[in-house]
Specification:
With 66 residues, this protein is mainly alpha-helical. It has one domain (11-59). It has helices at 11-23, 28-40, 52-59. It is flat, with a radius of gyration of 12 Å. 6% of the residues are buried.
Length: 66
Amino acid sequence: MATKYQISLASKERGELDSIAKKGKYAAQVILLALVLLFCDISSEGRGKKTNLEISRSSGFSRGSG
């Protein structure tokens, strides 16, 4: 399947999302969404793009979540 969207985060954006994910002072859904964005980041600072299946497994989301 072809890539529909590519996410490339700036340093500041990565920092904000990392902060949300690590502090734990947000709703669980917000933390999970921050993690998904970080997993999808294809920028040079990103952890490397993961497949949808890898993101689903590591974040706890499934196709039925939403």
